[in-house]
Amino acid sequence: MNVFVVNCGSSSLKYQLINSDTEEVIAKGLCERIGIDGKLTHNPKGLDKYESSEAMPDHKTAVSLVLEALTDKEHGVINDLSEIGAVGHRIVHGGEKFAKSVVINDEVISAIEECNDLAPLHNPANLIGISACRALMPETPMVAVFDTAFHQTMPKKAFLYGLPYEYYEDYKVRKYGFHGTSHSFVSKRLLELIDKVNEPSKVIVCHLGNGSSITAVKDGKSVDTSMGFTPLDGLIMGTRSGSIDPALTQFLAAKLQVSLDEVITILNKKSGVEGISGVSSDFRDLEAASKDGNERATAALEMFAYRAAQYIGSYVASMNGVDAIAFTAGIGENNITVRKMICDYLSYLGFELDEKANANRGEEIMISTPDSRVKVYVIPTNEELAIARETLELIG
Ligand code: ADP
User: Fold this and answer.
1) DSSP 285-306
2) Parallel, antiparallel, or unpaired: how do β-strands 202-208 and 221-225 relate?
3) Residue 272 near ligand 1, beta carbon < 6 Å
4) Per-residue pLDDT tens for 351-383?
5) SS3 at position 100
6) Is 335's C-beta closer than 6 angstroms to any atom of ligand 1?
7) What is the C-alpha separation between 227 and 213, in angstroms, rounded?
8) Residue 396: per-residue pLDDT
9) Of 207, 208, 210, 268, which is best to mutate to test ligand 1, by the most ligand atoms within 8 angstroms of its C-beta?
10) CA–CA separation, 211 vs 198, rounded Å?
11) pTM score > 0.90 for this model?
12) How many CB atoms lie within 10 A of CB 167?
């Protein structure tokens, strides 16, 4: 069966068509500038890339253009829409309502809507993607896969904040965590690699990309994670500050003479390694600048690694031990220097880096020496494949 995986943002739509028998991606692409003008980039497997700038006034038009591209005589990969057996939608926030992926129906849509104020930039866009697909493929079963669901197993001691308890009851203020699809996918693979699938286990997954988070996974379940009520918390990221003293928001608003909204925008978009270095949010640029002697770029890299190592250490404490650690996502899979910088903090765990193995990029590999007590792996993440698998499991 072919599963159409949709990741819908406020002005963009990423998609993949995955053959669930072979797990092969038979087409993937991106719609950009929806509601502005519109650009479609469609990559069918084994065929030439197709680009179009046909107008995309709304998401329904964007979905319709993607479906046309998928079934087109020249750059299509299927004959007609009946060859799409199911649609898997990535949904950012499922609140406390969704601890698992679900088949989409009217009730589920209302429940996702109720989570909108927890993710006001993302959930409404995700819902628009669902309704656009439903309008064009009314008979096709659809599944919602949530970024937050995997973390719903966190215990109260990990997810509550030190705030008046009523805020949790009245406003659902708590840690939710994100990147759940990736943490779930990578931790499952890690358990296979260390041969502990149905055994007691303690592992830590470091998803280090533009947005970064680290998760403690005990016996296959998330027990703590570094992102919080929003994806701003935790690690220092590309442009996000990560954890800071909350009193700074008021201090900065006063100093900069800006509103709290503007301070939050600064923390989301102008901070992190970009704000520290003044160079870039991209770790390749930071590494190059650091090699050229740029001290702020060096500081940004050191701060990133230091904070990541601190979270790993705190999760070793949370679980009272660790069997294995995985690095994933853009930086975790590809940045040899940053992996080494983080690993340099881990010798207390009885871990030694295999420098030769660590010289690889983008492939599944063990980077700890065979003698290391704690095993460390690089495991490429694949959120689209994880969504396709979840979708198939629910409707298959
Ligand atoms: P997002 O959170 O947007 O999905 P990614 O997981 O793609 O982000 O991570 C982006 C980061 O990964 C960038 O800082 C980039 O430097 C790094 N990265 C991606 N590919 C490579 C590569 N081939 N070599 C080194 N770094 C890479």
Assistant:
1) HHHHHHHTT-HHHHHHHHHHHH
2) unpaired
3) no
4) 999 999 999 999 999 999 999 999 999 999 999
5) coil
6) yes
7) 6
8) 78
9) 210
10) 30
11) yes
12) 13
Atom of ligand 1 nearest to the CA of 362: 23
Burial (CB count <10 Å: 0-12, 13-18, 19+), residue 354: middle
Query: Tokens standing for 247?
Result: 């009193």
Instruction: Give yes or no for residue 210 CB within 6 A of ligand 1.
Output: yes
334 lines ligand 1 (CB under 6 A): yes
Q: What domains, with CATH codes, occur in the chain?
A: 2-146 (3.30.420.40), 195-378 (3.30.420.40)
* Ligand 1 pocket check for 363: Cβ under 6 Å: no
- For ligand 1, atom 22, the nearest C-alpha belongs to 334
Question: Which residue, chain included where needed, has tokens 């949010």?
Answer: 281
Cα-to-centroid distance, 309 and ligand 1 (Å): 19
Which atom from ligand 1 is nearest to the alpha carbon of 281? 14
**Ligand 1 center–CA 68 separation, angstroms:** 31
pLDDT of residue 10: 85
- Name the token pair of 385: 């494949």
CB 129 within 8 A of CB 60: no
**d(C-alpha 191, C-alpha 174), whole Å:** 28
Start-to-end CA distance of the chain, whole Å, equals: 9
Q: How far is the CA of 363 from the centre of ligand 1 (A)?
A: 14
Contact 120, 50 (CB under 8 A): no
